[in-house]
Predict the 3D structure of the following.
Amino acid sequence: MYTFTQVVEKGSFAEAARKMNLSRSSVNKLVIQLENHLGVQLLYRTTRQVTPTDTGKAFYKRCLDILSSVEEAELAVSEQHREPKGILRINAPMSFGMSVLGSKVAEFMSRYEKIKIQLTLEDRFVDPISEGYDLVIRIGSLPDSSSLVVNPITIIPRVICAAPSYLNLRGIPEKIKDLKHHSCLHYGYLSSGGQWEFIEQEKEEKVSVEGVLCCNNGEVLRDAAIKGLGIVILPTFIVEEALKNGELQTILSHYKLPELTLSIVYPINRHLSTKIQLFTQFLQECFK
């Protein structure tokens, strides 16, 4: 399986052989034996390159998962886990990664010098199993899955705010129903879509909102709000500076907003991973 994954990643028997310090014929023989054992063709072979078949692509993903489990099982019972090392593949939201996580990752790496971090930032839910990440960091609700471990880290506070120029022009809403008459900039990946939720006297209230912009990136929404395009609900780590310097001001502060949870999510078969446990504990320390 390992040989097969190397051939897929390198796109060549020769390159895989060089990495594994084997002969090309040995690598080719191992893959042929695997194909014969499974009774399927895993690779298309040409004189220039080697590419996986559709079956090979699916099998490649499963092999990565299996090999990762083997690696973690070995580390869990060996002396190596006392001095963690290797690559930790992390996926996190763009705004949070740029504003907060980047400095935390640097601090973590200075503490554990033999751990290498591969950090990818994007604003969508990522399945760590199918996309090959050791863990993902997400803010908000998460899909239920028996194959994933969800480890809550902290609560992310949010505020509703707008630019003074917008409020001077359109007026300051005093009740949430007033938002129906305002331009509201809302986050594109929220399952509620154009509905905003508030909590008043322990009861949830929803209001349908409309606006000129819907986006899946908080910094874009913040900048649009600063330009006076409308009202926005965002985590404080995105708007903190704009609130301090007066570019934005909070409104409807007598209403509560539903809490968002910052969580670490990883495949259940990685719960023995020392790297994942160390990073989880580190973030818990950072945000406690």
Q: What stands out?
A: The first helix runs from residue 2 to 10. The domain at 2-76 is CATH 1.10.10.10 (Arc Repressor Mutant, subunit A). The first strand starts at residue 43 and ends at 45.
